[in-house]
Amino acid sequence: MTDIHIALLGFGTVGKGVYETIQTHQTRLKAILGKNVKVAGVLVTDVEKHQLQDDGVLLTSNFEDILNLPKLDIVIEAIIGKEPGFSYLKKSIERGCHIITANKEMFAYHGNELLEYASRFNVACGFEATVAGGIPAIQTIRTLLNVNKIERIEGIVNGTSNYILSKMRDEEVAFQTALQAAQELGYAEADPTNDIEGYDAFYKAMVLSQIAFGEQPEWQRVTRKGISAISHSHIQLFSEWGLRVKHVISLEKGPRGIRCSVKPVLVGPSHPLYSVDGVQNAISIDADIVGNITLQGPGAGKFPTASAIVEDLIQLNASQGSYFKQEENVRFKKDPQVQWVILTKQTNQFLPESLEVISRVPEKAIFVKAKEKDINRLLEGNAELKAYQAYGQLNHELLENLQLNDIRLTRKVAVPKGI
Ligand SMILES: NC(=O)c1ccc[n+]([C@@H]2O[C@H](COP(=O)([O-])OP(=O)(O)OC[C@H]3O[C@@H](n4cnc5c(N)ncnc54)[C@H](OP(=O)(O)O)[C@@H]3O)[C@@H](O)[C@H]2O)c1
After folding, report:
1. What percentage of the chain has pLDDT greater than the value 70?
2. Counting atoms of ligand 1 from 1, which one is nearest the CA of 302?
3. 246 and 120 assigned to the same domain
4. 298 lines ligand 1 (CB under 6 A)
5. What does the pLDDT look like over 30-75, one tens digit per residue?
6. Residues 167, 204, 246, 369: which is the catalytic one?
7. Is residue 104 part of a domain?
8. Where do the Aspartate/homoserine dehydrogenase NAD-binding domain residues begin and end (predicted)?
9. Domain of 120?
10. Tens of pLDDT, residues 4-33
11. Closest Cα partner for 395 from 380, 366, 415?
12. pTM for the complete prediction?
């Protein structure tokens, strides 16, 4: 084989980025791969909308035309939704093609099946672009797994939500104003539900779980919350206290299972995600030998995503078959006690015994340690209460600066690390 023949399924932001990167990096790709990389075909829904500079590239809206290309080595999928991407990739595998996808929703649902299928047909499957765009998160985790055990992953993986929260804090604007600005800048879709309600981040969390822990948690047991209900007055209040609201995916594997949540949380200045602002993404990985690694960078966009896909293309040569390390089935860990900040004016109110009060900020908030189920029970009966989980250490200096009138947290009582 002297050339590598590629088909692009989808020619939107991502597909065009890959196409242009391949054109502009021919010499470099040839030096690395020892072969020319040629785009042989492009699949879209509406051929009239598109024009390709190269007449030798087939532009079609019929997937069978792609499958029937005389030479085809790699199929790159960058279309939207579970289908038809999944079916197209299975057919590509059956034809003997390696596959690469950027489609996190499809991959969260069908990733394992696709990987097994690819392995059965002795082809490779790349999916770096499904999580955090240009950040090499998957590759880093795979490398770490050679000798490390991944213990915990926290990440900001949705640039739209992160941009909105940063703008609400920096410019003291309401959610709707920040969302509108994100839409005007092209960071948010006309229908932003996937981003602002946490679905996009949820899919990415499932892909990360699969690669890091060899399995996904049961979806219905994962807390998924978005950012649309966050008020900018809360954000300002937390800012005064030195805390920031971040939309964070969190994955942890203990001896008895995977704990996963996708939700807005509070982070303090010592937390690795504290200063990740705007459309930036970051993935913070705790592993048993190396300790903490935090990767930060552009989580989406034409060229950052193309970079991840072209990196996959190069890696495919080296590693074929399943990327996933399978582990034995494990049971879920119990709902652990973690830190929460309950916002309420009635700060001297009686709380159920299941909530351990750490401190009270008069007429503003009560800091507690509690299980999520007990917090949810409390919120169900009190519509005026709001609760945010706090990550990292709520340090003593911070609590003392708040001039709390009921500090029960003494220096002898350690706040559990990393909750
Ligand atoms: N945008 C990013 O920064 C980014 C980053 C990481 C991952 N992703 C993922 O990459 C995928 C593509 O995103 P995008 O932003 O490039 O989307 P996009 O700009 O909307 O482009 C989607 C492309 O897919 C084509 N398409 C849609 N449905 C199709 C179908 N049934 N058959 C054939 N072609 C179809 C469209 O054809 P027409 O042009 O004819 O409409 C269009 O060319 C998504 O799964 C997304 O989650 C995106």
Report:
1. 89
2. 3
3. no
4. no
5. 999 999 999 999 999 999 999 888 878 999 999 999 999 999 999 9
6. 204
7. yes
8. 10-122
9. 3-126
10. 999 999 999 999 999 999 999 999 999 999
11. 415
12. 0.85
